[in-house]
């Protein structure tokens, strides 16, 4: 009886041996010793964002991150689903074209600033009638030339930096230097796909968690098509399977910062893994889950692995973590306003459908679309969202930074209404508050 802790004094002794973190390990801050143990004995997993960040980083940060991944050696492991998402997103313009797109964006902004400055000077010259005063006109003309020269010099500097940071030939997988290094680093370290039975079960569980808002992955069900929204949970399930197989602690390195992965501090700063995830890892593998973002990996590697890592690389990754997402760049008010302006000239029904949805919590019904377009009730709405995607791509070709075009404006299907025809259309949630003031202004001007 005493041997199993149930004899006289057994339960009291067991309780007396418990410490403040027993049963509450998810609240414990990782120590330097924890990271040494992880890098020596644990499983270090990288997600898709970490790999895509290699293309968005400058050349110094990219090299530092790849060096750390190389140093991790046999501790490093990549879930199969991570590579599924990597190959699906790698050729996205916001990934391979990141540096030149940002350079084009700044180039356009500086050109616009120069035109605005010159227009302002022209208005002033006319308003105060100094056009005939040669000395003032000559001085202004001299300063105009200097301003144009400064702006052009900055534009050249930025273009040169973009050319240096962008990967020449990256569109050719045989010439991409990042892929060449990753191929060596990941050789023999990529997990297998789930079996068909396991995959189907995981997809069902992902959907259940999405509806119940259980981590991880439920945030994606709010703003992604269902077939893409299951990705986070598929990655998680594969990590759990591998962690149980190896029976070791897991360090997940993720660029994701959403609340379905992290306990956030001050509203938006990842502080520690969600308690539910730590507990699930313990239940499935018997070991603890740790999580860091890519910048945290560089910091820990520098101190624990005794690697030379530039502090600027850590700062660069911290900035990238706040400006990118797994789908690419977020929409901005400027980009959405330009998109609506373009649509008003080319696809007015879609433009007004977007504006209507913005004022109705992101949704516009099928009936409202018919009313906006004056459509006959027999008309089909197949391909209705296509002009929005086309306009967004055109803006991107012009050098403007746009968000994820695939989920900005989506058809919504209600099986109880009609399993074939869309019941309406929905805007990506993050775009709604940005579009709402644009909609109010345009609709007020039209009324």
Provide a descriptive summary of the structure in words.
The chain is of the alpha/beta class. It is built from 19 helices and 11 strands. The strands form 4 sheets. It has a 4-stranded parallel beta sheet, sandwiched between helices. Strands 9-11-10 form a 3-stranded antiparallel beta sheet. Strand 4 and strand 5 form a beta hairpin. The longest helix has 32 residues.
Summary of the model, kept short:
With 447 residues, the protein is of the alpha/beta class. It contains 19 helices and eleven strands.
Relevant terms:
3-stranded antiparallel beta sheet; globular; 447 residues; 19 helices; 4-stranded parallel beta sheet; 57% helix; alpha/beta
Number of strands: 11
Spans with pLDDT under 50 lasting ≥5 residues?
1-7, 324-328
CA radius of gyration is 27 Å
Strand content: 5-15%
Instruction: Please write the string of helix (H) and strand (E) elements.
Output: HHEHHEHHHHHHHEEEHEHHEEHHEHHEEH
Sheet with most strands: strand arrangement = 2-1-3-6
Helix content: 55-70%
Distance between the first and last residues' Cα: 84 Å
Based on secondary structure, the structural category is: alpha/beta
Name the quaternary structure.
single chain
The coarse silhouette is globular
- List the total number of helices: 19
| Biggest sheet record | 4 strands, parallel
Mean pLDDT: 83
């Amino acid at each position: 009886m005493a041997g199993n802790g149930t004899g006289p004094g057994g339960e009291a002794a067991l309780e007396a041996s418990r410490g403040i973190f027993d049963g509450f390990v998810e609240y414990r801050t990782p120590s330097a010793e924890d990271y040494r143990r992880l890098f020596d004995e644990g499983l270090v997993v990288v997600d898709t964002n970490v790999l895509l960040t290699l293309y968005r980083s400058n050349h110094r940060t990219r090299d530092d991150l790849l060096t750390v991944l190389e140093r991790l050696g046999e501790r490093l492991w990549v879930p199969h689903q991570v590579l599924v998402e990597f190959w699906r997103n790698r050729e996205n313009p916001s990934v391979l074209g990141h540096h030149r797109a940002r350079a084009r964006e700044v180039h356009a902004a500086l050109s616009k600033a120069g035109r605005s400055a010159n227009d302002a000077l022209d208005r002033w010259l006319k308003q105060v009638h100094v056009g005939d005063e040669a000395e003032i006109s000559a001085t202004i003309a001299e300063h105009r030339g200097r301003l144009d020269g400064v702006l052009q010099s900055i534009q050249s500097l930025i273009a040169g930096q973009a050319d240096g940071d962008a990967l020449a030939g990256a569109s050719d997988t045989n010439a991409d230097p990042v892929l060449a290094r990753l191929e060596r680093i990941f050789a023999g370290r990529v997990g297998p796909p789930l079996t068909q039975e396991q995959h189907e079960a995981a997809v069902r569980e992902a959907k259940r968690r999405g509806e119940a808002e259980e981590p991880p992955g439920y945030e994606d069900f709010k703003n992604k098509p269902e077939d893409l929204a299951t990705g986070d949970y598929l990655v998680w399930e594969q990590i759990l399977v591998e962690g149980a197989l190896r029976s070791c602690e897991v360090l997940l390195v993720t660029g994701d910062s959403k609340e379905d992965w992290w306990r956030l501090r001050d509203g938006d700063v990842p502080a520690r893994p969600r308690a539910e995830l730590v507990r699930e890892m313990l239940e499935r593998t018997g070991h603890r889950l740790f999580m860091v973002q890519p910048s945290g990996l560089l910091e820990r590697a520098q101190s624990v692995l005794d690697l030379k890592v530039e502090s600027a690389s850590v700062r660069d990754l911290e900035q990238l973590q706040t400006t990118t997402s797994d789908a690419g760049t977020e929409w901005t008010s400027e980009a959405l306003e330009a998109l609506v302006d373009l649509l008003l000239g080319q696809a007015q029904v879609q433009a007004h459908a977007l504006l209507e949805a913005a004022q109705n919590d992101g949704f516009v019904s099928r009936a409202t679309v018919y009313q906006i377009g004056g459509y006959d009730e027999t008309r089909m709405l197949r391909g209705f969202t296509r002009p929005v995607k086309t306009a967004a791509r055109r803006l991107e070709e012009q050098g403007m930074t746009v968000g994820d075009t695939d989920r900005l404006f989506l058809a919504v299907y209600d099986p109880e209404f009609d399993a074939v025809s869309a019941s309406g259309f929905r805007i990506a949630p993050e775009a709604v508050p940005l579009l709402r003031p644009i909609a109010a202004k345009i609709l007020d001007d039209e009324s």
